[in-house]
Specification:
about 80 residues; about 0% strand
Length: about 80
């Protein structure tokens, strides 16, 4: 019989404030890349799609974080 392995430790959850800062920074980086390739018929739409996808995914993660932050805690 094999020894039981310890489950991996959960990563600490990023604070909502830190998450917002990181999302803003990441979107700004993508916007700068879009500005540099303005008019490129291939790169500009791809980066715009990347920006939109990142915004949607991060919004979902941010909403999840906000729901955790605002959840009612059991009263002791």
């Amino acid at each position: 019989m094999e020894a039981m392995q310890k489950p991996p430790h959960a990563n600490p959850r990023e604070s909502t404030e830190a998450m917002v800062r990181n999302i803003c920074r990441e979107l700004a980086e993508i916007e700068q890349a879009i500005d540099h390739c303005r008019g490129d018929r291939v790169a500009e739409p791809r980066l715009t799609g990347t920006w939109m996808a990142h915004l949607l995914i991060s919004s979902n993660e941010l909403l999840h974080n906000l729901l955790i932050d605002t959840a009612r805690r059991p009263q002791d």
